[in-house]
Amino acid sequence: MSATTGTGATRRALGFGLRATAKVLPEHTRAHNRAMVLQHLFHAGPTSRADLARATSLTRVTISDLVSVLIAEGLVEELGVQRGGGVGKPAMLVGMRTHAFQIVAVDLSDDTVMRGAVLTLTGEAVERRCLEVDDRTGDELVDLVEEFTRGLLDAATQPVVGVGIGSPGVIDVDGRVLEAPNRRWTDLPLAALLSERLDLPVHVANDADVAALGEYTFGGAEGSMLLVAVGQGVGAGVMVDGARVHGVRHAAGELGHVTVADDGLPCACGRRGCLETLLSAPALRRAVAGLDTEAADVALAAVGRTLGVTLAPVVSALNLGEVLLSGPADLLDGALREAAEAAVVERTMPAVHTGLRVRMATLDEDVVLSGAAVLVLAAQLGIS
Amino acid sequence: MSATTGTGATRRALGFGLRATAKVLPEHTRAHNRAMVLQHLFHAGPTSRADLARATSLTRVTISDLVSVLIAEGLVEELGVQRGGGVGKPAMLVGMRTHAFQIVAVDLSDDTVMRGAVLTLTGEAVERRCLEVDDRTGDELVDLVEEFTRGLLDAATQPVVGVGIGSPGVIDVDGRVLEAPNRRWTDLPLAALLSERLDLPVHVANDADVAALGEYTFGGAEGSMLLVAVGQGVGAGVMVDGARVHGVRHAAGELGHVTVADDGLPCACGRRGCLETLLSAPALRRAVAGLDTEAADVALAAVGRTLGVTLAPVVSALNLGEVLLSGPADLLDGALREAAEAAVVERTMPAVHTGLRVRMATLDEDVVLSGAAVLVLAAQLGIS
DNA sequence: CGACCTTGGTTAAGCCGCTTTACTAACAAA
DNA sequence: TTTGTTAGTAAAGCGGCTTAACCAAGGTCG
User: What InterPro entries does the database record attribute to this sequence (chains A, B) (predicted)?
Assistant: First the structure.
């Protein structure tokens, strides 16, 4: 027989044992290669057509064609010839028009205030807004999000590619909020709803997942990484081999309610000793309240160690390259982080922990907004 | 701008922040759709062209063309008309010729004896062989594997699609053994070497990873799952959203040397309290030696609980659907398994553990052989 | 200085792979 | 027997990439 090589088809588990793959058409080829070009321009900056061809291993002909379409769409522009090259005809640089389009991003991770921004395609904030939530929940909260988003859309000075939203809760790939107790959202198709009302592509995902995505694309994080987002609670976003992990019930990353202390404090979830009872902004502030620096560091290190102990099996199972901490730096970036790193290193084998870093996220308060932007970039342009 | 939708391009992290995607050509479209057809025939059995078209959402024309090629290659055959249908022309069933090709699989997970088999495409063993290793290591062991494989190839009664090997150690995607201390293999391109010598496609992967793959394809396991392989040590294979997890340094699944006891027994790795000091066939046998059934169950339950405590964060981070245990059933399938399941459930939130099962692997001693076969099926035919 | 070389980019022709449309084949129901 | 329904094939067309051949615009070198 001929040793024909099949593709590594993207698979998805469907119920019991049935695997579905989607058909691929010639135009998907185009979409893929187009995304590859945009991806390159996005990360490497202005590039000549010839260099694009070399980078993608497509031919100059195909690249030229592709670029001409992108120029016609306004996504790309010619930037003049590259001076000072060697022999041969000097190259014409083409680059993404990163400021000619904008993205609206909304961060719902805080219970009390929603934050939003108008961003360029490179994630620079052009306009920021905040809005008190005033204990609104359920449909009322949806209306408020819509209104808030409309305001941001009005503030946009360029065509908007789409809206990205990071929200707490369990959210499926289509942006349906399956469960977000604090918001009183259950099985709410938030993305579809807003997309309909705003007549724009809207993408919704879990805030911690989105934060991980943001760090991956804008923060330079590795493709196998876990981000621990510390706020009113704890969540995590996980990326494996460059792809977001969703899990069987879309609940991947729900680390806040793993038991970490056998006779720990009671938790809001009804059980005892959850990670969240120790590691959350309020819990940490309580833990260090009234202590001098030294004593506070001891307390923080204890929490850090617990985090490290909890993450060691995860790091081993996935052979992660990085663990990022996101949240209040005064609490996390110090004794806590160091103790967590030490514990992970101490409790894993060298093959797993060599090269591993436990570090702070680089995007600070904008992680979720940036990540929400990546959600849009990835879905609309294939960039991440 | 036009709201063009990009593809979810397959990405891979390359060093720091650089992402590479491979170009896609029209013929990749073909390969993908071809794999999809084979995949369907493999899992659903004989199917008419018209049903294949409906299942894949390709047109009957394309399916007919694809099938005719597969028939010409000998991979597929017509099986006569489907009797007793409703109105209309009765359909001609086509099916994979699962017995017209064979796969050679080798299991190197045991230190002392290598096991191998000639399998049909559905994983049925046609011939089994064993060979004492006699403390051979390094190049000598490679030669022995080659000789052993040659024997199996000679025993094959049908054309062989390829050779699959499951081996302990850290192994990269190209089948290069980066590190396998007990075999004295370091940075050994085993797959390339054997492929060259045997003039056949050879695929090599970690034994636990391969076991997970086997359970996924032949054992009906879910797409987000972790398999704990207990033998002379402990390893794990992880699948997330239907794809194998490799990790940054190809060391994903190395759970044996996670610390689980703060002042535990000394481990061969030089540290103390590794999971492997409690959970391995020898360690378990020692633990229950001389105990009556009840006392043995208490001892096994203690280990099971430790395993559950270790896995709880992993299950939460990935929202796994299943955890499988593979190894000696007399030790694992009972108090140990139940305690592990109880601990995972007890220590994770409902959204994570509802629907989760901790169960025994179904393929018993053949897991690694079956998995090695899947390695070949996936690489050569796109089936998994 | 002009011929030649090198590199960037475009045009034309061709192949591959899918779709739509239109056809034939084979059966059940009326 | 006619009609309707479903399976499968044939022909034409379109999208998307490649190769081959070309022009453009600069260096290098005799």
Answer: ATPase_NBD, ROK, ROK_cs, WH-like_DNA-bd_sf, WH_DNA-bd_sf
Position B82 scores a pLDDT of 83
Nearest nt to the A51 alpha carbon by C1': C8
Mean pLDDT over the full length of chain B: 93
Q: What's the Å distance between residue B79 CA and nucleotide C26 C1'?
A: 17
Query: In chain A, which segments carry CATH 3.30.420.40?
Result: 102-212+367-381, 222-361
CA-based nearest distance A290→chain B, Å:
31
pTM above 0.85, yes or no: yes
Categorize the per-residue pLDDT at B364 as very low, low, confident or very high, splitting at 50, 70 and 90: confident
CA A129 to CA A148: how far, in whole Å? 9
For residues B70 and B52, is the Cβ–Cβ distance under 8 A? no
Mean pLDDT for all residues in chain A: 93
Of the candidates B6, B201, B382, which has its C-beta nearest A3's C-beta? B201
Residue in chain B closest to A35 (alpha carbons) equals B6
**CATH class (in words) of the domain with range B221-361:** alpha beta
pLDDT for A228: 98
Which positions of chain C lie under 7 Å from any protein Cβ? 5-12, 15-21, 25-29
From residues 215-234 of A, list those within 7 angstroms of strand D by Cβ: none
The rounded radius of gyration (Å) of the Cα atoms in chain A is: 23
pLDDT at A364: 87
Alpha helices by DSSP H, chain B: 26-44, 49-56, 60-73, 138-155, 190-198, 207-217, 275-278, 281-288, 293-318, 329-332, 335-346, 350-353, 367-376
Q: In what order do the strands lie in the sheet with B234-240?
A: B243-244, B234-240, B225-230, B322-326, B357-360
Provide CATH 1.10.10.10 ranges for chain B: 24-96
Q: A23-96, which class in CATH?
A: mainly alpha
Q: Is the CB of A10 under 7 A from strand D?
A: no
Could you tell me where in chain B the CATH 3.30.420.40 domains are found?
102-212+367-381, 221-361
Contact A29 B34 (CB under 8 A): no
Bases of chain D with protein Cβ within 7 A: 4-11, 14-20, 24-28
Identity of residue A298: V
- pLDDT, tens digit (0-9, with 9 covering 90-100), for B156-188: 999 999 999 999 999 999 999 999 999 999 999
Cβ A23–B245 below 8 Å, yes or no? no
Residue A246: which of B241, B246, B247 has the nearest Cβ? B241
pLDDT band at A20 (very low <50, low <70, confident <90, very high): low
CATH architecture of the domain formed by A102-212+367-381:
2-Layer Sandwich (3.30)
As assigned by CATH, the class of the A222-361 domain is: alpha beta
Q: pLDDT grade, residue A82 (50/70/90)?
A: confident
Grade residue B87 by pLDDT with cuts at 50, 70 and 90: confident
Q: Is A269 exposed, middle or buried (0-12, 13-18, 19+ CB in 10 A)?
A: middle
Say whether the CB atom of B88 is under 7 angstroms from strand D: yes
Alpha carbon A25 to chain centroid, angstroms: 29
Q: Which nucleotide is nearest to B69 (CA to C1')?
A: C17
- pLDDT digits over A345-361, tens only? 999 999 999 999 999 99
Which is nearest to A126 in space by CA: A95, A156, A167, A160? A156
Find the mean pLDDT for residues A309-315.
98
- Specify the pLDDT at position A224: 96
Name the segment(s) of chain A with CATH classification 1.10.10.10.
23-96
Cβ separation A28–B33 shorter than 8 A: no
Number of Cβ within a 10 Å radius of residue B282: 11
Nearest alpha-carbon partner for B301 in B240, B343, B329: B343
The C1' atom of D2 and the CA atom of B93 lie apart, in whole Å, by 29
CATH, range B24-96: 1.10.10.10
Taking 90 as the threshold, does the pLDDT of residue A1 lie above it?
no
Q: Is the pLDDT of residue B15 over 50?
A: no
Residue A205's φ and ψ, nearest 5 degrees, are -150, 165
Cβ within 7 A of any strand C atom: A 23-26, 48-51, 60-61, 64, 67-68, 86-92; B 26-27, 29-30, 33, 57-59, 61-62, 65-66, 81, 86-90
- Asked if B355's CB is within 8 angstroms of A251's CB, the reply is no
